[in-house]
Amino acid sequence: ETSSRWTSRGFLHPMGILAFLFSVIGLCGLDAPITIYGPKMFAEFGFHIPYQYVVIILPIGSFVGYILAIPLLACMRKRHQYNICALFMAISTALIGIAYYVKDM
After folding, report:
1. What angle (nearest 5°) sits at the alpha carbon of residue 85, between those of residues 92 and 6?
2. 15 has a pLDDT exceeding 60
3. Which listed residue, 42, 77, 87, 104, has the most CB atoms within 10 A of its CB?
């Protein structure tokens, strides 16, 4: 019986290492500027969302992204997935910039 590439040791071992590293990144303070200034940004625009909810948005978004990325690789090429995610991040950043520009007018 042959094993698929998704269950082979050559795939699972590096994937386990990467999963561990990306899980530990949040504990290293890498996202500290976003985690600290995220609630401040919501407050500047007059959103009345409790601080505890705003702080948890980033880790939940990262978790959902990691969970969705793996199945997407099975049905989508890495290049397409990368381009779609890069476009999504560019649009998000542009919208934040536009929101700040309009707010300061």
Report:
1. 150
2. yes
3. 42
